[in-house]
Design the sequence.
């Protein structure tokens, strides 16, 4: 059972009781039956088993199936399920379904069945309860397969599909989803606008399935189709699910910006729905802030600000603050002291990239003042292994973040001053230009072929002396440059 369901269970029970109370107060009926019903309700808190027996005795008091018997069975089923009497609950639920065709109105029966299935779903916290819940779904579908109540058929099938998805029965889920998609389309195969809300629920289930299977190609297509559904007024929790899966999809593609946008929308929807999943998605939002290497405070927005001091996300908040301040030791300490962060597979899968970025920033900051240092010293300062240091430095060199080389045999990093390197490269270009100029003026073995460019013997001697001096300077400078360049390479 998810966090949001756990959070809502108690309030939902109260809601259902309130709804039943409201219905009961408005109904008349036989005085003896009515008294028996309310006496049974008084026993619920003190002696639930006696209350069950009293509720189950109500249908027998009616000459024909009526609303008091329907209400008595509802209350008995809820108590039996709560007491773990799943077989009896399923048996009496089957009896309850016989009332919906004639004893009560269609709207009232549909509302009651939906509330009953919601109640059962929120209480399914063990294998036996889940099996009972599946039995309830099957009985409901069997009861309504020959009726015209398409809404209840869709709702029940969606609930059943969710149950199967939780059990990772992907083959059965795929078949059910195809049936559900077909039910939300017109005869010509186009989407039925009147069923847009159901269509979005179906998309959310399919998106979750492909996200779990890591089928990004199908996931991306479904995600885009779901966002194009405009004829629906979906529950915000459904949009929270769709946006959360979209964020995870973008993360797998290293599209941090789109991931951040989707996680924020998911958080906002979960928050509106009162779902506790908002806390987990807020952690994902903080994770993308670090992966984007952003300095923007994620708690600056009106929606996230109330959660800044929430103890459930304090560890992630400390990680973000350490990351933005480039405090590698603080970051590592927070991660070490809060291993429960890694309990979420999605965070555990992506936190390594954040840690690598953090160590990379720490290494750059550490080596900045030095030209030559031991790898073991860098490892000690960063509190990581020497192979990890080599990996980080190798990445920095290849990426052009630092100019230098690693002497693996000696375990030393040698940094080349970029300023010296640029000066030597400029000097090499100058000497090459002088050499080319000298070759153009004095070509060995060639006479003077153009009479318009005849020079005097005196001018030729001066040019020869100048050329010899230039050639000597060029050779000397070039040799020094090559020698010095060799020291850095």
Sequence:
């Amino acid at each position: 059972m998810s966090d949001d369901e756990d959070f809502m269970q108690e309030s939902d029970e109260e809601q259902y009781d309130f709804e039943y109370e409201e219905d009961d107060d408005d109904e008349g009926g036989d005085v003896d039956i009515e008294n028996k019903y309310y006496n049974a309700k008084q026993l619920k808190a003190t002696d639930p088993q006696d209350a069950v027996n009293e509720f189950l005795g109500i249908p027998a008091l009616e000459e024909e199936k009526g609303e008091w018997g329907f209400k008595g069975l509802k209350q008995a089923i809820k108590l039996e399920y709560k007491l773990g009497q799943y077989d009896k609950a399923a048996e009496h639920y089957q009896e309850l379904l016989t009332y919906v065709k004639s004893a009560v109105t269609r709207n009232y029966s549909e509302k009651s069945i939906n509330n009953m299935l919601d109640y059962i779903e929120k209480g399914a916290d063990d294998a036996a309860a889940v099996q009972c819940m599946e039995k309830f779904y099957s009985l409901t579908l069997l009861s309504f397969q020959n009726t015209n109540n398409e809404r209840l058929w869709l709702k029940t099938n969606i609930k059943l599909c969710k149950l199967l998805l939780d059990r990772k029965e992907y083959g059965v889920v795929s078949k059910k989803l195809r049936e559900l998609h077909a039910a939300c389309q017109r005869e010509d195969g186009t989407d039925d606008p009147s069923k847009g809300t159901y269509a979005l629920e179906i998309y959310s289930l399919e998106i979750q399935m492909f996200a779990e299977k890591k089928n990004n190609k199908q996931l991306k297509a479904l995600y885009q189709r779901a966002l194009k559904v405009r004829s629906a007024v979906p529950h915000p929790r459904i949009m929270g699910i769709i946006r959360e899966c979209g964020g995870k999809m973008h993360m797998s593609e290293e599209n941090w910006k789109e991931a951040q946008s989707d996680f924020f929308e998911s958080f906002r929807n979960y928050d509106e729905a009162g779902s506790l999943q908002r806390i987990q998605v807020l952690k994902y939002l903080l994770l993308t802030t670090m992966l984007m290497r952003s300095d923007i405070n994620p708690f600056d927005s009106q929606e996230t600000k109330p959660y800044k001091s929430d103890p459930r996300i304090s560890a992630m908040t400390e990680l973000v603050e350490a990351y933005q301040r480039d405090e590698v030791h603080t970051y590592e300490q927070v991660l070490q002291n809060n291993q429960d962060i890694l309990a979420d597979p999605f965070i555990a899968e992506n936190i390594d990239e954040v840690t690598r970025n953090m160590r990379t920033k720490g290494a750059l900051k550490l080596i900045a003042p030095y030209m030559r240092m031991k790898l073991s010293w860098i490892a000690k300062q960063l509190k990581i292994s020497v192979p990890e240091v080599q990996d980080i430095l190798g990445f920095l060199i290849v990426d052009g973040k630092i100019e230098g080389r690693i002497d693996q045999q000696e375990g030393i990093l040698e940094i080349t001053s970029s300023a010296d390197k640029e000066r030597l490269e400029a000097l090499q270009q100058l000497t090459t230009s002088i050499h080319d100029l000298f070759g153009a003026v004095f070509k060995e073995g060639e006479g003077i072929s153009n009479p318009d460019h005849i020079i005097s013997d005196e001018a030729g001697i001066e040019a020869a002396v100048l050329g010899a001096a230039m050639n000597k300077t060029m050779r000397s400078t070039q040799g020094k440059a090559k020698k010095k360049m060799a020291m850095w390479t």
Q: What stands out?
A: Residues 370-430 form a domain with the Arc Repressor Mutant, subunit A fold (CATH 1.10.10.10). The first helix runs from residue 3 to 26. Residues 1-29, 445-466, 481-489 have pLDDT under 50 and may be disordered. The longest strand covers residues 404-407.
